[in-house]
Amino acid sequence: MRSPQKTASRWDENKSYILRSITFSCGEGSTSNNVCLFAGGLCHKHALLKSKYKRFERGATALWCVRNKAGNGSQTLMGIGSPVLPSVAGSVPGVDDAPPPPVRGEGRRHGKIICYSRNRSALCGAPIVRPMDQFAKETLPVSLEEEMRSSYLAYAMSVIVGRALPDVRDGLKPVHRRVLYAMHELNNDWNRPYKKSARIVGDVIGKYHPHGDSAVYDTIVRMAQDFSLRYMLVDGQGNFGSVDGDNAAAMRYTEIRLSKIAHELLADIDKETVDFEPNYDGSETEPSILPARIPNLLINGSSGIAVGMATNIPPHNLREVVDGCLHLLRNPEVTVDELIELIPAPDFPTAGIIYGISGVREGYRTGRGRVVMRAKTHFEDIDRGQRQAIIVDELPYQVNKRTLLERIAELVTEKRVEGISDIRDESDKSGMRVVIELKRGEVPEVVLNNLYKNTQLQDTFGMNMVALVDGQPRLLNLRQMLECFLLHRREVVTRRTVFDLRKARERGHILEGLAVALANIDEFIAIIKAAPTPPIAKQELMGRSWDSGLVRDMLSRAESDTVGGRTAYRPEGLLPVFGMQGDGLYKLSDTQAQEILQMRLQRLTGLEQDKIVQEYREVMAQIADLLDILARPERITAIIVEELTLIRSEFGDERRSQIEHNATELDTEDLITPQDLVVTLSHSGYMKSQPISEYRAQKRGGRGKQAAATKEDDWIDTLFVANTHDYILCFSNRGRLYWLKVWEVPQGSRNSRGRPIVNMFPLSPGEKINVILPVKQFDELHFVFMATSKGTVKKTALTEFSNPRKAGIIAVDLDEGDFLIGADITDGQHDVMLFSDAGKAVRFDENDVRPMGRQARGVRGMNLEEGQQVIAMLVAPAETAGEGEQAVAGSVLTATENGYGKRTPISEYTRHGRGTKGMIAIQTSERNGKVVAAALVAPEDEIMLITTGGVLIRTRVDEIREMGRATQGVTLIAVGEGNKLSGLQRVVESDAEGEDAADGATESDGEAPSADTTET
């Protein structure tokens, strides 16, 4: 074998050096790949790793230690993270005094280096060292790609395995496991006094978790919060935070101890049930896993973000999870769907409502799913029943109450959620209570549904059930999680049984020795008295063979009762020379002799002999039972079932989270009860609705009930009865259409004015709503007929307006300076009448206008002179074929700007083709001025006239004479100098009465307008 040519020069043991290089040569049976050069390692006299020979392949990464022994001290030279290279031939600069060749097959010291041999191949190393002041004076070329790949992969695996993901067996991350174990080691049990949190934190970071104290304390705080963990693992005393996001008190103030259920995670940990591993500095050992009698991963859940993956497991009810475990133990072929019957959904510590389980089932089947959570609420009447309030009793899991209230207030300020007048947090020690007061007339179901959509009153928990299985991250379904836990329990019970068996055998062995001593007590005492020292006495006792009939009887009974015969009760590793021999004599072992020497004199009484025999019988019975457990897997299953049943009875509780199995994603409308409402719109633009039940039946001539409170300069312009689920089409003067559901119209009392309609839509400056039309359904048999001020008309199928949009749509495309003056719903059997400010009118069949698309501009309906415009569009019943008379009697009231007007029978207006200049409707002489209004009226109607000076007059239609078309009319109102008549409006009676309450609000003749009729 070749030895290195030179050895290392001497160095000061009190200094640190850089291990420059160590050249290893291999002897017999070696290959070139075993010849290595290690460089760049740190050399220091304090050894962290034990010296051990390892075989490295060429190109691998080296971790090498060579132990140096000199005098009474020791040093370790380490080459860490260096690439394995071929040996360097020839001399090495700076090295002298070559050592002699090592002897094959043994380690031998050459100067300051020990050479190790393995498999008949001797290794010898010679270091070159340099002081620390010369460190890092040279650089080595390294591939950035390779360095990033290896380093980042190592970092990622460290985070995944050692920090962010829980183990499927005990459901804990390393920091949680270390905290619980440290508290266990300090005897910080549930039935002992509390200890300061700072003391626990110091123990954890000092012994097991070399990280920041805040990280450890935050872990403790979360395990002590009843709103974070379904079953708290730490019993805290002090301020540990709240659902408002308040921080816990500092660790020097709070006190903690293990909760009672946490002991189930640590049960039997002292019986070698789990593996222990060195801590970060090798000074302590810590468990790699906890025995965990409870399925902690499911009952408390877990969440964490690793590198490239994350986990989010919801908490569950312990009673349900244990039932699932027991069912799986008894029926190993059970399916996930069958387990879902026992574990239907998560059970959150903050309770709340689980809204639908389709996403939960998906999560249980695949490991990924979606849990929709809702706050639990109820309604209360306030202000003597005139208003209502939404009371929030329970929040979804992990929702910050303070942040939630701030979000609601923000939405109210931004008017994204309307109808809320006040928000108060009345929560106290007795429970949660958040009060959301509503404005008068608001529907609480509607407001609550809007809050569900826009706030965390409805939240989602994304299930991503990733956990470590055998040290590898895996996505698990419900069955797999239970299987992994039960497999862990089988291993723990088996290892516990093996431990108990070993201890029982050792105890039985000691009892045999005590029985031998009692049977030969005089000789034992004589030997002990004669021995000069205890070791000599022990040797004397072990050197003889002893006769004991008591032991023979004990052993014979044990052999007959124990599975496996004589060998079953002997401790493992006990040499055959000890114990009962073939000649019937007994040889004491070292353990027995030591126990005899330590025996107290009171054990020499006859009663003690009986106790030894009785205890020996019990130990032998225990050994037989333990052997039977190990021999029969069904016994282990029975033990697991028994333990789980006890845990369920002691810690099981009722489900907190309510499950709504058949929940669907409801629109706000789904929460509205269908009912008929009376909808009113005043001339000033105030809109409201009232239940039709507010209008009781009266006899004809009754006084009726006032439908709305109006000012002297305002009146009800439009009134109709519609169902809460009907639409209201609202047309603006800019030709845009906005939608409104009847239930969206604010309900008000008879004395309220309602809400301004301009506040219900995103109107642009100068835009106003001038036509509203109720629609029950969008069918193909009806049309929307529109007219503009420049004489353009357009007919569009009603179905074109069946897709509501919040921002509205263009109903008719208008030219600059044009505006919409009228719109109505037709069925193809009506005539359309257009009136211009020049006193002309045209009447034509609506079928003269073909249906057009929504984007079309329309066609000419009336031919206007320069400066003229259309001021009114009326939809009248079609003429009866062959008669020239109108099927329904009625008249047209026209009014001019100087206060003159007249009433003309509708039959006087004959049909002409569309697009003509029309016929004379009223003379527009200098006396009359321009026409400002036209309306279909009946004799019993009333009209309101208003001037530009704000003067109002209300008069009955039957007081206005019927006159021919070509007349100038009569005085309707004295406008006064400088004023003009600005408008005329048919008044819908505000004192509505009806023949029957079911008919709703009616006009003065007792007939209610239909839901499809618009009075304009």
TrEMBL record:
<keyword id="KW-0799">Topoisomerase</keyword>
<dbReference type="InterPro" id="IPR002205">
    <property type="entry name" value="Topo_IIA_dom_A"/>
</dbReference>
<keyword id="KW-0067">ATP-binding</keyword>
<dbReference type="InterPro" id="IPR005743">
    <property type="entry name" value="GyrA"/>
</dbReference>
<dbReference type="Pfam" id="PF00521">
    <property type="entry name" value="DNA_topoisoIV"/>
</dbReference>
<dbReference type="InterPro" id="IPR035516">
    <property type="entry name" value="Gyrase/topoIV_suA_C"/>
</dbReference>
<dbReference type="GO" id="GO:0034335">
    <property type="term" value="F:DNA negative supercoiling activity"/>
</dbReference>
<comment type="function">
    <text>A type II topoisomerase that negatively supercoils closed circular double-stranded (ds) DNA in an ATP-dependent manner to modulate DNA topology and maintain chromosomes in an underwound state. Negative supercoiling favors strand separation, and DNA replication, transcription, recombination and repair, all of which involve strand separation. Also able to catalyze the interconversion of other topological isomers of dsDNA rings, including catenanes and knotted rings. Type II topoisomerases break and join 2 DNA strands simultaneously in an ATP-dependent manner.</text>
</comment>
<keyword id="KW-0238">DNA-binding</keyword>
<dbReference type="GO" id="GO:0003677">
    <property type="term" value="F:DNA binding"/>
</dbReference>
<feature type="region of interest" description="Disordered">
    <location>
        <begin position="989"/>
        <end position="1016"/>
    </location>
</feature>
<dbReference type="GO" id="GO:0005524">
    <property type="term" value="F:ATP binding"/>
</dbReference>
<dbReference type="GO" id="GO:0006265">
    <property type="term" value="P:DNA topological change"/>
</dbReference>
<feature type="short sequence motif" description="GyrA-box">
    <location>
        <begin position="698"/>
        <end position="704"/>
    </location>
</feature>
<dbReference type="InterPro" id="IPR050220">
    <property type="entry name" value="Type_II_DNA_Topoisomerases"/>
</dbReference>
<dbReference type="InterPro" id="IPR013757">
    <property type="entry name" value="Topo_IIA_A_a_sf"/>
</dbReference>
<dbReference type="InterPro" id="IPR013758">
    <property type="entry name" value="Topo_IIA_A/C_ab"/>
</dbReference>
<dbReference type="Pfam" id="PF03989">
    <property type="entry name" value="DNA_gyraseA_C"/>
</dbReference>
<keyword id="KW-0413">Isomerase</keyword>
<dbReference type="GO" id="GO:0006261">
    <property type="term" value="P:DNA-templated DNA replication"/>
</dbReference>
<protein>
    <recommendedName>
        <fullName>DNA gyrase subunit A</fullName>
        <ecNumber>5.6.2.2</ecNumber>
    </recommendedName>
</protein>
<dbReference type="GO" id="GO:0009330">
    <property type="term" value="C:DNA topoisomerase type II (double strand cut, ATP-hydrolyzing) complex"/>
</dbReference>
<feature type="domain" description="Topo IIA-type catalytic">
    <location>
        <begin position="165"/>
        <end position="671"/>
    </location>
</feature>
<dbReference type="GO" id="GO:0005737">
    <property type="term" value="C:cytoplasm"/>
</dbReference>
<keyword id="KW-0963">Cytoplasm</keyword>
<feature type="compositionally biased region" description="Acidic residues">
    <location>
        <begin position="990"/>
        <end position="1006"/>
    </location>
</feature>
<comment type="similarity">
    <text>Belongs to the type II topoisomerase GyrA/ParC subunit family.</text>
</comment>
<dbReference type="GO" id="GO:0005694">
    <property type="term" value="C:chromosome"/>
</dbReference>
<keyword id="KW-0547">Nucleotide-binding</keyword>
<dbReference type="InterPro" id="IPR006691">
    <property type="entry name" value="GyrA/parC_rep"/>
</dbReference>
<dbReference type="InterPro" id="IPR013760">
    <property type="entry name" value="Topo_IIA-like_dom_sf"/>
</dbReference>
<feature type="active site" description="O-(5'-phospho-DNA)-tyrosine intermediate">
    <location>
        <position position="253"/>
    </location>
</feature>
<comment type="subunit">
    <text>Heterotetramer, composed of two GyrA and two GyrB chains. In the heterotetramer, GyrA contains the active site tyrosine that forms a transient covalent intermediate with DNA, while GyrB binds cofactors and catalyzes ATP hydrolysis.</text>
</comment>
